[in-house]
Amino acid sequence: MKEILILEDDKKLNDGIRLALKNEYLCRQAFSLEEAREKMGDHMPDLILLDVNLPDGSGMEFLGEIRRISQVPVLMLTANKMEMDIVSGLESGANDYITKPFSLMVLRARVRVWLRESREDEGVFRQGDFTFDFNRMEFSRGKAGLELSRTEQKLLRCLLENSGRTVSRELLIDRVWQGETEFVDEHALTVAVNRLRKKLGQGADGRERIRTVYGIGYMWLQE
Questions:
Q1: Given CA atoms 181, 30, 212, 209 in this order, what sign does their dihedral have?
Q2: Which residues are in the OmpR/PhoB-type domain (predicted)?
Q3: φ, ψ dihedrals at 208, nearest 5°
Q4: Region 10-28: what's the mean pLDDT?
Q5: What is the distance between the alpha carbons of residues 80 and 105, in angstroms, rounded to a whole number?
Q6: Residue 101: cis peptide before it, omega within 30 degrees of 0
Q7: Count of CB atoms within 10 A of residue 205's CB?
Q8: pLDDT at residue 218 tops 90
Q9: Cα separation, 144 vs 199, whole angstroms
């Protein structure tokens, strides 16, 4: 499931956007630049909805920070209707620009456009003798097929999308058990990881692919 970061200091509007998108996307909310930086610390979302005027700084300047490390789609949200403001945002690297007030249906349509699958193989990962096709839900090691539960598939994909980086336990729980996190015991994640490890076995280099980063989370090892 694609992940969206909503950076908007108006709580009512932020909540409204989340409600409009939550059935299709994993929505993470931030109400200040400081909070957004914390949420983006080791994990970049698939799309960012960015307010221009924030209580602790400029959305335009934050856009510059984002563009120095990522080309993730950014849709600017602003009450400004001046043509130069729109031009400035687009020239600074914004992908789209929506002025307030706006229709949540229009916003949802814009988000769909920017997150539309552009390649049939986007959900296919290959490493060593492993092939993971999340589009067809077909997983294999060499010629041997692997039967993975939906929970294991979500867990595996999150680790693969952050290959070589530590993914926190909190983020994994949020991604795997979206909307049910208050009912999930942290032990459930440990059990799911151990089951996935057992099914995958060792890679071509003789190592297990999932490393435990004690006290933090897990990492998918690159070869």
A1: positive
A2: 122-222
A3: -70, 145
A4: 92
A5: 20
A6: yes
A7: 9
A8: yes
A9: 11
Distance between CA atoms of residues 17 and 203, nearest Å: 42
The answer on pLDDT for 9 being more than 90 is: yes
The answer to whether the CB of 41 falls within 8 A of the CB of 65 is no
- The structure tokens listed for 112 are 């769909």
Verdict on whether the full-model pTM lies above 0.70: no
8 A C-beta contact, residue 39 and residue 16 = no
d(CA 198, CA 82): 58
Which structure tokens are listed for 145?
């097929």
Per-residue pLDDT tens for 114-125?
A: 887 434 445 778
3-state secondary structure of 210: strand
Token reading at 7: 């950076």
**Hey, how many other C-beta atoms are within 10 angstroms of the C-beta on 191?**
11
Q: Where on the phi/psi map is residue 130: left (φ > 0), alpha (ψ -120 to 50), or beta?
A: beta
Residues 6 or more apart whose Cβ sits within 8 Å of residue 197: 208, 210
Alpha-carbon distance 147 to 69, whole Å?
36
State how far the Cα of 72 lies from the Cα of 94, in Å rounded to an integer: 10
CA pair distance 58, 214, nearest whole angstrom: 37
Mean pLDDT of 43-67: 88
Q: 64-118: per-residue pLDDT in tens?
A: 888 887 778 899 988 766 666 677 777 778 888 888 888 898 899 889 888 874 3
- β-bridge pairing 57-58 and 53-54: antiparallel
